[in-house]
Design goal:
Elements lengths: L16 H20 L1 H18 L1 H4 L31 H37 L1 H15 L3 H12 L3 H11 L1 H16 L2 H8 L4 H37 L11 H7 L9 H28 L7
Length: about 300
Amino acid sequence: MMIETPSAASAPDLLSEPPEVDRRVRARAHLSVFVRRKSLLMGGALLLLILVLVSGAPLFTGYDPTAQDPNAILQGPSPSHIMGTDQLGRDIFARVLYGGRYTLLASVLAVLIGAILGTGLGLLAGFFGGLVENAGMRLVDFLLAFPGILLALAITTILGPGLGSAIIAIGISSIPTYGRVIHGVTLQARNLTYVEAATALGVSTPRLLRRHILPNVFLQVVVLTTTGLGIATLWVAALGFLGLGLQPPTPEWGSILNDGRDYVTMAWWVSLFPGILISLYVIGVNLVGDGLHESVDPTASRM
């Protein structure tokens, strides 16, 4: 008696459907992990609120952030000026909302510069090793020898005051953080079995980095970028406070804080409200960063 074995054509298609189902299951699992992180949800909601206020500034205020009103100098919070006015009669609420655009945009661009350059440096140093690794890590050590904010101040002083100079300075200052972390993760990924197998099969270096190494470091880059946004925002505001960032009369959170420095005792609202927005944004970014870190490394929440 002959026993028929199912051919490849008659057998159930087990090679096409399960991967799709598996991807859906994994996507739902990752989504459920993110949803369970309370810090991620709270931080995301806080950031969303601030971004809606800043991006939709014309919808929430009818005042021009640079318009001066001599009849409304240093007026306290009221129905007509809910956050009061400054020493030139400008509406603080309008200046805070419009100024947030420049501060947040500058912090994002600065972090992107640091992420791209630092990740590239860490990837190349960790993957190639040898002279490339020594040169890359010595550059990182050189940048780490200077405190970040002092390095940013030095670069801004050389380039001259302005928002572009602040972005470049903060971006360069954040390169060492990415370089160090990505270098270590790349060293681990380079020794994975499937990476060694791809190397043995003759996969080109660019394809190997793009398809096999970069996916292993991507989550670390996301976590570092999220956390770095808060630091970059503080640095942008600090440079603006010192007069090295965006120049007057264009509003920016740091420069608004500087405007109220001489009026803290008699007009507390000038500095209070931009300070609150900065604090809330940094808290939101840190909460999101903590949530992402716990999602990538579940043991972190138990430490």
